[in-house]
Amino acid sequence: DLAIDVPGHGKVVVDIGYGGTFYAFLSAEQLGLDVCSSKTKDLVSAASTVTEAVKKQFKLHHPESEDLAFLYGTILTDGKDAFSEEPTTNICVFADEQVDRSPTGSGVTARIALQYHKGLIQLDQTRTFRSSTTGSMFTGKAVKATKFGDYNAVIVEVSGEAFYTGTATFTVEEEDPLKYGFLFK
């Protein structure tokens, strides 16, 4: 429930969650958009604006490593965070305005943790998450409450389906002087 001033959109309320990386979460409706029917380019632009606004207005902390204390992106949702058998839809915009083809494993982990800590789901209640761009589905559930540093945390299980898209073969020639890599001095 962090109030952020987002250029072009005014004050919005975001949640910040960690599931392997930090994301800002908010319903697309707060930005005048619909995660299921708005143009992807409009969702990407709005999410990127939120990411930049959060970075400027809020300092993240990680209990073990400050190198991990950065906002990776913004996940716009359909706002359906309370437990339901029906899937909830989101789009994950991360890094340099990239869009995940899936609901995002680390994003689902963070979103489940937020829903659990807000009392919207209970341990072992499985939620289904749908990508607004591809329709792919993941499920997630909180399985155990715990602590991480001074923070309340939850262990989350995420499952989904993926397919191989290619393979690579690396060849090392014995006479290659850099076959084991190199270090800068």
From TrEMBL:
Q: Name one Pfam family in it.
A: Pro_racemase
Q: What is its EC number?
A: 4.2.1.77
Q: Which domain of life is it from?
A: Eukaryota
SUPFAM superfamilies per the UniProt record, alphabetical = Diaminopimelate epimerase-like
Q: Which reaction does it catalyse?
A: trans-3-hydroxy-L-proline = 1-pyrroline-2-carboxylate + H2O
Keyword Signal in the entry? The reply is: no
Q: Does the keyword Ubl conjugation apply?
A: no
Q: Which UniProt keywords apply?
A: Lyase
Sample GO molecular function, one term: trans-L-3-hydroxyproline dehydratase activity
Q: Which InterPro entries match?
A: Pro_racemase_fam (IPR008794)
Family (UniProt): Belongs to the proline racemase family.
Q: How does it assemble?
A: Homodimer.
Question: Matching PANTHER family, A to Z?
Answer: TRANS-3-HYDROXY-L-PROLINE DEHYDRATASE
**Which protein are we looking at?**
trans-L-3-hydroxyproline dehydratase
What is the species of this protein?
Calypte anna (Anna's hummingbird)
